[in-house]
Please model this.
Amino acid sequence: MVTPNECLLVGFLDADNIIGLQRLKILYITGLCTEDEGLEVACTIPKNHYVVGAYMDRKVYLLSYKGEVKHHLVKSVSDLDGKNNVCRLF
Model:
């Protein structure tokens, strides 16, 4: 379980290289930028969706599947309660 539930996002990891890492659901992401200034949105995440990430060395990474970040619909309250490896980025 990731604690605290507020995490620092530092980058991306290839989903093929995460054996042994703790996976988590990252909430409240609305878009992703791929350039350093963060001005150009490369991917928009729909409302009520989460992105799958991994926790390593007290940092959070988004998982990249063949170069793309996947997002999934939040299906139940248990996806939001902070007890199911849920992380909010602040």
In short: The CA atoms of residues 22 and 55 lie 5 Å apart. The chain is about 0% helix and 50% strand. The chain has a mean pLDDT of 77.
